Amino acid sequence: MSLFAMGFLLAILQPSSSQFPRACANRQSLLRKECCPPWDGDGSPCGELSSRGSCQNILLSQAPLGPQFPFSGVDDREDWPSIFYNRTCKCEGNFMGFNCGECKFGFSGPNCTERRLRTRRNIFHLTTSEKDKFLAYLNLAKNTPSRDYVIATGTYTQMNNGSNPMFRNINVYDVFVWMHYYASRDTLLGGSSVWRDIDFAHEAPGFLPWHRVFLLMWEREIQKITGDENFTIPYWDWRDAKDCVVCTDEYMGGRHPTNPNLLSPASFFSSWQVICTRSEEYNSQQALCNATSEGPILRNPGNNDKSRTPRLPSSAEVEFCLSLTQYESGSMDKMANYSFRNTLEGFADPRTAISNISQSGLHNALHIYMNGSMSQVQGSANDPIFVLHHAFVDSIFERWLRRHRPMLEVYPAANAPIGHNRENYMVPFIPLYRNGEFFKPSRELGYDYEYLQEPALDSFQEFLIPYLEQARQIWAWLVGAAVIGGVITAVLTGLILACWKKRRGTSSEIQPLLTESEDYSNISYQSNF
User: Fold this and answer.
1) Of the four, 9, 334, 432, 518, which is 20 to 30 A from 200 by CA?
2) 420 exposed, middle or buried (CB, 10 Å; 0-12, 13-18, 19+)?
């Protein structure tokens, strides 16, 4: 009881941070708890004058959560983002963004009406110039201050309930390192106490949708700072790889000649500084990462604990994972058995789908194999291999969606770990996205994978895709309606035939006479269904 009371007290004292739209990082927005910036196109909040959106109260999910987090009111991420804002922009149609100034993923054009499909490609299929451009874009992101986002360096309470804003700038690449850290950090409970069994991006159903949004937003930010609207993240197909084939100076950085834990000085990634990697230090100080530099990227691929991860994943393990029919099961966490999500994430054996947290399979195996910055969850996005790896993990998720064609209801609506129910908003994204919104095929979000591409659809078929998807979601109702309609039709047909036979049997003397004025050629028959 005393621990819970201490946690409740720390709800108003603990430091916390997140990424915030720069336009909302000000005294007025914090005091009003409102993040509804104006759209530059017409100067109105959320572009309301142009019917792009409007400022509305946030509707939080009331669905019950799982038992993994036994506290309430001790973590700023609970009921995201209500501790900071309770009103945000709700965009209409295909508009999106914290001020409704952008298009939804998969749409483009001034009115966001043009469908667009981009293709993510194998990094080894890029030409030399394409590969060099990708590496240059990464370095540009690391050295370009984010135009749209800042991070907070204190809680709403430490900001004196919003009257003393506490924010700092951060570069575009590190915004995403920060978001990954913030979503997966421990809960601080005061003194030296923390609660580790909490993660808003891992170990639960939202793992795959969360990282899908993460990559889409990362892709979008690169497109904005470079002006390259065709940019897509390449992927590394690591199935059956004998070693880290991207760990060369030509690609993601080779091994240092004298220190195997560092990157080769011939790679510009060797000069990168990491942030948010000292989780135990933050916990002991009951503080959060403040995004200051903490040293170079560490990576020593293959020199990991072989008893935990003996090798990189195989094609057979991926195929077995894809054969699993249940997206989620049981406790819906890292102990779940026969769960596609838990097996792909790597907490279940990729040969049996039985949970085994002493081993690291599939997704987790790659992180452990890298034996460095990638191997610590909170700071893993510091290594640029992270985006190549997660793009391929997302492609496996996509293969499962295409093979099993699940309805939205397959994604758990309730009793998942905190932050992972279908209608929960993903931490710490602003604009807001719900987990269930990204439990859908990638083509509906505007991208595909090179090795998954199907024969091109003609324009009419492309036009039908969203309507066919809506029909698929309500197929059970359609079938039921068809059955009922068939029964009613059969009954009516029987009655009509019975009446017709009865009329034929009636005496000619009592049948009505037909007059010459009747025009048979103009008789029409109508029926209403």
Assistant:
1) 9
2) buried
